[in-house]
Specification:
With about 260 residues, the protein is mostly helical. The chain contains 13 helices and 3 strands, in the order ααααααααααααβββα. A 3-stranded antiparallel β-sheet has the order 1-2-3, covered by helices on one side. The N and C termini lie far apart (about 75 Å). About 35% of the residues are buried.
């Protein structure tokens, strides 16, 4: 390679590193996030994992978290599959597949992200931030996968697997929540029936270009709860809204029982 090209490539790498450093300086306290995750991650990699494509575009085309998301998805799937296989020796293939799907779905990962308050750490473009991107299920879920990928690259498979298991532990430890994550629409319908409420009503809208639409769902259970969710399909958006509604009612009940106790 000619010297001029080498200098150009070197300068491009330096420029990208500088942009990432600036992004790191703009992010919320990374030490706090690492404490919540229970693992130390190289700050540059963690910043990359938090960088949504909208932020990257607005900052001169710096790298975004999509490649890390691709890697993290694979690590997540393997870790969950192995755990379910080992801990459910009497469950058949179909049952294992359903459980795995519920734990690695965007709905479940977004729920995990909200439990650690991940939204406030995201690096989003101005428009995405103003439209509520910090609480969009698809963005939260993708970022969880990107963080898993970053941990894998920085600390190896064993540490990344341990992180996955810590993140999904709330779903596994709470059978009711696990059932809701598996089928949130049915769980919400059953919850409405127990409270003698009318069945849930869903309203769905969409936004964005035809090739990359985002669907927004609102579910209402009269006299009980109203909640919203979004996803890459109408079904995913309704599931996200149903899980949010179910979680709201469930947490409300837990607080009431605690106050009486």
């Amino acid at each position: 390679m000619p010297n001029a090209e080498r200098r150009h490539d070197k300068q491009a790498r330096i420029d990208n590193d500088a942009r990432l450093s600036r992004a790191s300086g703009e992010s919320t306290n990374l030490d706090e996030l690492q404490e919540l995750l229970g693992v130390q991650v190289d700050p540059t990699l963690l910043t990359l994992a938090l960088t949504h494509r909208s932020y990257a575009y607005e900052h001169g085309g710096i790298p975004n978290n999509e490649r890390l998301e691709f890697l993290g998805d694979s690590i997540l799937g393997q870790a969950v599959t192995v755990k379910l296989y080992r801990e459910n020796p009497r469950t058949d293939e179909g049952g294992l597949a359903k459980r795995r799907a519920s734990l690695v779905s965007s709905v479940a990962l977004a729920e995990v992200a909200r439990t650690i308050g991940l939204g406030r750490f995201l690096l989003l473009g101005r428009g995405e931030s103003q439209s509520g991107g910090a609480d969009k299920s698809s963005i939260l879920a993708d970022t969880v996968e990107a963080i898993i990928g970053a941990v894998y690259l920085d600390a190896g498979g064993e540490v990344a697997t341990a992180l996955v298991l810590r993140l999904i532990e709330p779903l596994l430890d709470d059978p009711d929540r696990f059932g809701a994550a598996l089928d949130p629409k049915t769980s919400l319908q059953e919850l409405a029936a127990r409270h003698s409420s009318a069945p849930p009503r869903y309203e769905v809208t969409d936004s964005g270009p035809d090739h990359n639409k985002t669907f927004h769902a609102t579910v209402t259970v009269d006299g009980l709860v109203s909640a919203s969710g979004e996803g890459s399909s109408k079904k995913n958006a309704e599931m996200a809204a149903a899980l949010q509604a179910w979680s709201t009612v469930n947490e409300r009940g837990s607080r009431a029982r605690a106050s009486r106790g």
